Amino acid sequence: MAQYSAQLDGLFDALADPTRRGVIRRLGRGPASVGDLAGEFPMTLPSFLKHVRALESAGIIRTSKAGRVRTCVLNRERLALAEDWLAEQRRIWEERTDRLEQFVAGTEEDPS
After folding, report:
1. FRET pair for 15, CA 20 to 30 Å: which of 79, 83, 97, 110?
2. What's the burial of 33, exposed, middle or buried (CB within 10 Å: 0-12/13-18/19+)?
């Protein structure tokens, strides 16, 4: 998992912004043009494009251009990295909680 550290840093940095999470939520319903996406957020197009570039840099979305229209598509495989990391953290903490529960209940197995 450590080999994914730089990718996870970029991923979570991009996910830290509510506008970007809104874009991801919207793209979960299917591809959309940048213009359509921008219309859903109260900001100028240049400001919105910064969010699109951040999501694209993190690999969360892909864009393609046909004529004058740039279309955004969600990259679900990239989001799976965050899901895998969170699942790993959940597993670690559940194991620790289970050991603490066994210790407190006095049922911990003797390691020797």
Report:
1. 97
2. middle
How many distinct structural domains can be found in the chain? 1
Q: Containing H/E element for 93?
A: helix 76-105
Q: What is the pTM for the complete model shown?
A: 0.78
Token pair of 10, please? 């970029």
CATH number reported for the structural domain that contains residue 61 in this entry: 1.10.10.10
